[in-house]
Amino acid sequence: MTIHKYYYQTTTLTMKPQLNDTFEYDFSFSWEQVLKYAELSGDTNPVHVTETYGNDSIFGKCIVHGYYSISIFSKVYGTMLYPDGHILISQSAKYVKPVFADEVYTAVFTVTELLLDRNRVRYRNEIINKQTGELKVTGEAILMNKKYYQP
Fold first, then answer.
1. What is each CA distance from 151 to 3, 44, 132, in whole angstroms?
2. Among 44, 72, 113, 116, whose Cα sits 20 to 30 Å from the Cα of 54?
């Protein structure tokens, strides 16, 4: 079953997650947001914030901070995907290709394991460039939710 973002914006979830359920969310990061994240985090590495440096880098332009790019996972888990009572237990990320500002991406969340006896679900998380289909980030998360994740 594939569940898209619009379903969550208009409907309260009452069903339990099933193996291979997916949720997709389209998003982008603006250049201004990247600069604000650099200011807030203190990570002002020029590959993120200095256009001339980014243009001369192996990436050809500035890249979005890794932790900022995966903050989309936190947004979805905290506000859209079973958000009531969600507790993030663990999150991993592998940065396959750089994420750039002002490009549209799709975050894909897939249920890969049900650990309902412990009120937990394992998700595969991916960030995919919406235009090219390139995988940018992959990883997994384990979330606990006593309201939705139970036997």
1. 22, 46, 40
2. 72
